[in-house]
Amino acid sequence: MAIVAVSTLSAQQKGEMYFGGNIGVATSTSIVSETSATGFGLSLAPEFGGFVADKFSMGISVEYGLETANRTDPALHTLGVMPKMAYYVRLADNFYYTPTLQFGFVCGLTKVMSGCIVETITMPGFGVGLSLAGFEFRPTPKFGITLSLLQLNYTYLNYKENDYATYQNSSIDFRFGGSSTIGLRCYF
User: Fold this and answer.
1) Which among 14, 148, 164, 172 is least surrounded, fewest beta carbons within 10 Å?
2) Which residue has the higher pLDDT, 119 or 145?
């Protein structure tokens, strides 16, 4: 019994490090002028970080994203390097509320029509995200399961070919439930 109490107290203390990753899947439906489009999104994000103070972690993730709007539009692939910070609030034994802020550089890759030629373009930009309903369950002191249910994200990508052709992708999304992310963490 004393060993369990000691291991519970050591969670989220300064100097503790972690590595892990998240996966997310999203679907969306847009209706504009009686025309509907169904979209699909996938994200994968390995991460590494540590606690810089008790209950306060900082880390970095490399995030890959795939978004499709419908069958005829080309997919948008994104790759981002996202520093992040989170604060841990204990809700129950081994169960924490973890609001998280992340920001960083993003690069998008998609295809566009240029006359009769399909071109692949690269669009640099940035992204900001806020997870308002993030949680972590730690069944053991060295292992955690993360879940994010409510996210607010902004992404801006830009490509300027010349004075006449500029491609931009700017998106704000507010996701609840159906586009959640789940992840695993190993602590050391």
Assistant:
1) 164
2) 145
